[in-house]
Each structure stands twice: as structure tokens, then as C-alpha cells.
């Protein structure tokens, strides 16, 4: 279910009209003003349905600022011109960008290399936290994924099938807060079938400050894959659209992860604290033949095409095509095929693991396996042979009883 707010459409039209040119030359100012007026007209037309949308308010303020900077009149033509594309090499690169806008140079000038952490959200959704805890969650509706002094990330998850607890990410909002002389506040927002290659105000970098290029968006695959580099906080974010839904992955220094004003009173923050226990799903319950049969009968009209009916055997065979190692990414793939019947969820698990390989700093922790259930999620030790442990415990108990009889 998509939001009636059409701010992403306005952003896309403005970006297409300006070809990403954030600082037009003198000869282009009239065309740039025309594009801004068209942008403003588009935002006004969707104002009623966007009152609570952060990206909308960011765009409105951004338009006003740009109009003032370039002396644009609010009256005039609003047709959509197309400005020239900047020639190669003319991309506002600033070699004299202040040192504070490069995390590793500024924050760790006289100390060891920073420790980087990873968080990812994909599929039904499945969450890998900054502490490498892996959970499958319900978390329907809007939930904060990251919340610290530098940025906020919020996701919205909607049901995949009617009457099912299976949800997937349909909307993502990232707010980069204004930081010293590096970047202005920037908002990035994506929804189903709308993966922009620019911030909400149409720009692709951090604004007009001296270190603006320390925040950049790069489009890897049109409409499917974008990457955001925030060098001033040493952070890389990857957002994808796979099928109808979004995936999120981030690489961030521990120092930035823990940069909060009041850590003890910090609110729920999924990437750091994981999903609440009452929102977690035990994927093991989805392995029995009876459960599989019940899910096979539950089909709905939400997906564009009728979902394929997977059994546990066919789902595992399908997931092995992309995920040969039977880790938690593989199990997530199987779970998603059983609960949704949508083969795109296999690709979501595959790309999520590809992002882990690129972003995780510890290559020995790429694969995660089942762990014993523990209230402190993700901190239990691996237990791959529970039957053997149970047998050993029983044998020790019998031995102790026999020994007491002898005594």
C-alpha cells in the first residue's frame, strides 16, 4: 500500500529536468528558475497529503533556499526545461574540503583504525544488528532503524499477504543531520517502485557547505540499487529495490553508532537493540510438513501474480541456487519462500549477503548460524548438536545416581 503523498514524483521530475546540476552557470539560471518553479508547483499540488512527510517539508525549504540563492522569481514559466549535463570531471569535487569532513583523517588522526559495524534489513523482514544478532521480525508499520547524533533511519513495513504476519519494507526515510562545515541537513526517501538517485531536494551531495562532497549519492543500477557515501561520519549505506520491496544495509564506525546524547534513555533502535521479543518470529516453526501445507493454501491477491506454492523441499532447492551455504541467510530465504511464495525474496536474501561481504569489516563473521534461544538476543553461543548435549546430560545424571547407590 503506497502513500498518497507524491513528493517522490516531484523530486524525480526536478532531478530529470536539471540533470543533477546543483549549481548552474550564469547562462543557465533562467532555465534553472523555471525548473524550480515547476518543482514548487508540484509540491503545492501534493501539499494536502504530505503534511506529515519529512521529505516533503525538506523539499519545500530547499526550493525556497535555492530560489533566494539564484534570485528566481516565483512568477514565470513552469515548463520542464532540461539543463545541460555537467562535463566529466566537473562534479563539484573539492580537493580542499576541510579535514573534519573525512572521518578517518579527523576523528582518528592519532589513534588506531576505527572499528566498523554492519546492520542490514531485508526480506520478511530479517534483521542483522550491529552486534551480529540475527532475527526475523513482524515490526509492521513505522520503526526506527538507526537514531544517533548524525542521522536517523526509519523503515515502514507492510503485510505481504492478507491475514499474514509476513511483512516487508515498503518505505525508507534517512535523515542526515547538518554537521559543522561539512553538510546541510539532507533527507533521502524511497518507496516501492520509487528509488530516487537524489535527496528529497533534488541534490546529490551535502549542499552548499565547504565539505558538501563528503556526502554523495551514487546510482549503481537505475531504479534498483543506490549507494550513499557519508565520508564525514565514515558511513556507507546501500539501498536496493528487489521485487516490490526495499532492502537496507549500512557500514558505520562504532563511535558513530554510539554517538547519542543520553544512551541510557535512548528509545528503541532496531539496528542496535534488535526487535522486541514480542515482535520476533521463530523460523523453526515453519519447517513442519503441516505448517508448509497450511501456508500453501494461503494465497492472496496482493502480489502482481499468484505466488508459487513452495514446499520445504522445493524452497530449499530454490535457495541453494543463490545461497549454497546453509546459514541464516539461506534459512531466511527458505522462510520467505514458504510464507510469501514470491521468488524475489530469494534475490533479497542473496543481495543482502552480497552487501554483507562488501560492508562487514570482519570477514570471518560473514556467515551466521543458528544459536540457542536466549532472552539477550544474539549473545548465546552456537549449538549445532542439541541432541548430543541432551544425551550427554542424561548419561551424567544416570552415572551420578549409580554412584550414589554404590556409596
Automatic annotation (TrEMBL):
<dbReference type="InterPro" id="IPR010536">
    <property type="entry name" value="RGM_N"/>
</dbReference>
<dbReference type="Pfam" id="PF06535">
    <property type="entry name" value="RGM_N"/>
</dbReference>
<feature type="domain" description="Repulsive guidance molecule C-terminal">
    <location>
        <begin position="115"/>
        <end position="361"/>
    </location>
</feature>
<dbReference type="GO" id="GO:0005886">
    <property type="term" value="C:plasma membrane"/>
</dbReference>
<protein>
    <submittedName>
        <fullName>RGMA protein</fullName>
    </submittedName>
</protein>
<dbReference type="GO" id="GO:0010604">
    <property type="term" value="P:positive regulation of macromolecule metabolic process"/>
</dbReference>
<keyword id="KW-0472">Membrane</keyword>
<dbReference type="GO" id="GO:0015026">
    <property type="term" value="F:coreceptor activity"/>
</dbReference>
<keyword id="KW-0449">Lipoprotein</keyword>
<keyword id="KW-0336">GPI-anchor</keyword>
<dbReference type="InterPro" id="IPR040287">
    <property type="entry name" value="RGM"/>
</dbReference>
<keyword id="KW-0068">Autocatalytic cleavage</keyword>
<comment type="similarity">
    <text>Belongs to the repulsive guidance molecule (RGM) family.</text>
</comment>
<feature type="region of interest" description="Disordered">
    <location>
        <begin position="71"/>
        <end position="97"/>
    </location>
</feature>
<dbReference type="Pfam" id="PF06534">
    <property type="entry name" value="RGM_C"/>
</dbReference>
<keyword id="KW-1003">Cell membrane</keyword>
<keyword id="KW-0325">Glycoprotein</keyword>
<keyword id="KW-0732">Signal</keyword>
<dbReference type="InterPro" id="IPR009496">
    <property type="entry name" value="RGM_C"/>
</dbReference>
<dbReference type="GO" id="GO:0080090">
    <property type="term" value="P:regulation of primary metabolic process"/>
</dbReference>
<dbReference type="GO" id="GO:0098552">
    <property type="term" value="C:side of membrane"/>
</dbReference>
<feature type="domain" description="Repulsive guidance molecule N-terminal">
    <location>
        <begin position="5"/>
        <end position="74"/>
    </location>
</feature>
<dbReference type="GO" id="GO:0030509">
    <property type="term" value="P:BMP signaling pathway"/>
</dbReference>
<keyword id="KW-1015">Disulfide bond</keyword>
